Q: What sequence folds into this?
């Protein structure tokens, strides 16, 4: 299982990094901000995280789903996958959680590639499944993911 810390760190890192070009606003109302900016603005998706932390899971789901569908935001995919995995504000749904991680991994998001690879490796029951898991981990490692590199090293698979 993925740790909350990895999901949170990935989500925050991606959203903070993507705010570099964001416009500043003196408006303090989130509702006004959201209406003006929409899901393509990184702070809109960040509000989904804040809503979840205040216990407003319905708002968090609405915002994160919009970020996933409208903005194709891989960080929102990862965070929303955690909601489905843990049953936060919804019934647990492992298939939805996995589909969101896979979608983010296929977009080239290294954190998702690491998460998917590590989960698949943990679940692998044969050589083909292990090979698929290691392939995702290698993709993440090629992008500089140190956790993926370390897991590959521990599996004796870093070089090939």
A:
């Amino acid at each position: 299982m993925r740790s909350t810390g990895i999901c949170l760190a990935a989500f925050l890192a991606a959203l903070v990094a993507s705010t570099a070009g964001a416009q500043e606003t003196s408006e303090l109302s989130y509702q006004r901000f959201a209406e003006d900016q929409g899901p393509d603005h990184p702070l809109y998706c960040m509000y989904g995280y804040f809503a979840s932390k205040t216990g407003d899971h319905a708002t968090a789901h609405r915002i994160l789903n919009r970020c996933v569908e409208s903005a194709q935001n891989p960080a929102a995919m990862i965070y929303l996958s955690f909601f489905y995995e843990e049953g936060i504000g919804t019934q647990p749904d492992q298939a939805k959680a996995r589909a969101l991680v896979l979608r983010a991994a296929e977009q080239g998001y290294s954190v998702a590639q690491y998460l998917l690879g590590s989960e698949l490796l943990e679940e692998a029951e044969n050589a083909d499944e292990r090979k698929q898991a290691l392939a995702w981990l290698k993709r993440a490692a090629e992008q500089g993911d140190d956790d993926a590199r370390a897991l590959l090293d521990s599996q004796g698979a870093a070089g090939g």
